[in-house]
Amino acid sequence: MEIKAKVSQLIEQGKLGQAIEACHRWANEGQSTEARNQLSLLKSKYNQVKLQENVGLITYSDAMREQLSVANALLELLDQHGQKEAPASLPTSNTILFLASNPSSTARLQLEKEFVRISRNLQEGSHLFQLVSEWAVTTDALQMAILKHKPRVIHFSGHGIGGGPGRKDGRAVGFGPEGESTQGIILQDKEGHGKKVSGRALEHLFSVFSKRFEIEAVVFNACYSEEQARAISQYVPYVVGMKQSIKDEAAIEFSYGFYLGLAMENDVGLAFELARNKILLEGFGEEDVPVLFTRS
Q1: Which of 57, 157, 232, 244 is the most exposed place for a label (fewest CB within 10 A)?
Q2: In this structure, which topology does domain 92-294 adopt according to CATH?
Q3: Average pLDDT, the chain
Q4: What are the distances in angstroms from CA 185 to CA 8, 94, 235, 257?
Q5: What is residue 269's predicted lDDT score, i.e. its pLDDT?
């Protein structure tokens, strides 16, 4: 198996330590001193993060963010030393912004796995996209990231909240009285705890940004996000939301199908249909199928 494919697979499986060791073996088989030194630094950073997490010096969310940074650096290193020419710079309009939030007080999600699967599909597609990420997102980081990258697609992965029951294997953290407008997403405060951002606040945010630059699509890969998706579709051509609580694995399969379609055909509508098909093909129920709203 090609080294990058092997390392990507290990990262997707949550085996970052093994991925680093595989890279070390690869580097020792004839790679430059520079590559070996870079790998040593990444291994040291990974070991330090694991130690700090184990003794409680950093939160799980912070550890996830740091480990994802190491994983991205590994893949970039393999790209850098595995090809003679660096890839051409991608246009800003083809930027996908991946926003992740999994506060320490909420159920753990496989956000790293989701990110890696998205990244692999984009790399293998026939259309060029630049994938950037922001982890442990706060309200400040949310606005800063959008202003900085001016993305074509914004993808939020994390927990949502809404008027209905959650489930243990899903991306919901709670629920409100039936019929009450309680929908929103969960970001993080400065201490790493969950902070609810209401659907109304998100609607206003996108009404502001839509006047500054074109955002083609917003994906809320979080439970109970249908209401806010509908509202935001006034300002964004395509918005995806989840009708109710969605299983974590179903959310990951949705991302896989969506970005496969986007990378291969560069068509948001088709990407959504492929993502919907992927969920059903994997045996998940209609309750796990998202909805797509389009700007009229």
Answers
A1: 57
A2: Rossmann fold (3.40.50)
A3: 86
A4: 29, 25, 19, 23
A5: 95
